[in-house]
Amino acid sequence: MRCIDVPDAPRRQCPGCFRTLAVNGNNFHADALCADGFTRKCADCRNAAERLRYRLEAPERARRVRERRAERRAYFESTGRYEAA
Ligand SMILES: [Zn+2]
Fold first, then answer.
1. Distance from the CA of 17 to the center of ligand 1, in angstroms?
2. pTM given for the model
3. What is the spatial distance between Cα 76 and Cα 49, in angstroms, rounded to a whole number?
4. How far is the centre of ligand 1, averaged over its atoms, from the C-alpha of 41 (Å)?
């Protein structure tokens, strides 16, 4: 069997946690807009950031749901098709 030089998988340092990781779908999120198809920050950093953002935006999300419900209620009341339970 011949020995073939297999180049190492590309690795990249995450600018968030400074770990150097192999660039693949396990360590980095896929993003078609990034040069090599993966995001700059590693998946762990991105997940943590998204978790934080989701929590921080919870009040705003709840406010939008309340507004939308009030809107729809007003609409159905105006059409006479709304009956409060
Ligand atoms: Zn990271």
1. 4
2. 0.67
3. 39
4. 5
